[in-house]
Amino acid sequence: MKKIVLIVALMSGGALANDWSGPTNVVDIYAGYKDGTLLFTTSDPHINPNGCFTSYYTVREGDADLSIILSVLLAAQKSGAKIHVGVDADACDASGRISVTRVRSIP
Q1: pLDDT at 54
Q2: pLDDT for 39
Q3: Are strands 37-42 and 26-30 parallel, antiparallel or unpaired?
Q4: Contact call for residues 51 and 88 (beta carbons, < 8 A)
Q5: According to the model, what pLDDT value does residue 5 have?
Q6: Domain ranges in the chain?
């Protein structure tokens, strides 16, 4: 039974694969798009495990909690704090850009 639980845990980890950027600062934030999209750039190169377009990180409503990510980005940009960006390692968004799944604030 323990082996089955371990196998399921390992398999589900691959299905939810996310990669994190290194510590970086938020440079630009583009918000307010009617389709529920948020774009932003960082001071360090974008993490791009899937060969997506690298102009912007993209957050889409439904892929992540857009309002919480926007709050973290705005606070980090205002204070100069660094963040880590978690991206979908398995797919680009519908427009071929890097799809963000979460953001972590670094104290």
Answers
A1: 84
A2: 96
A3: antiparallel
A4: no
A5: 38
A6: 19-105
Distance CA 26, CA 43 (A): 6
Q: In angstroms, rounded to a whole number, what is the distance separating the alpha carbons of residues 8 and 16?
A: 12
Q: Which long-range contacts (CB under 8 A, 24 or more apart) does 40-47 make?
A: 40/73, 42/83, 42/85, 46/21, 46/85, 46/98, 47/19, 47/20, 47/21, 47/22, 47/85, 47/87, 47/98
Handedness of CA 30, 36, 37, 42 (dihedral sign): positive
pTM: 0.80
| Inter-residue contact 60 to 36 (CB < 8 Å) | yes
The architecture of the domain spanning 19-105 is Beta Barrel (2.40)
CB 58 within 8 A of CB 39: yes
Rounded to 5 degrees, φ, ψ at 79 are -90, -15
pLDDT digit string, tens, across residues 44-93 = 988 888 889 888 999 998 889 999 999 999 999 999 999 999 999 998 98
Which pLDDT score, from 0 to 100, does residue 107 have? 83
Please, which residues have CB within 8 angstroms of residue 16's CB and are 6 or more apart in sequence? none
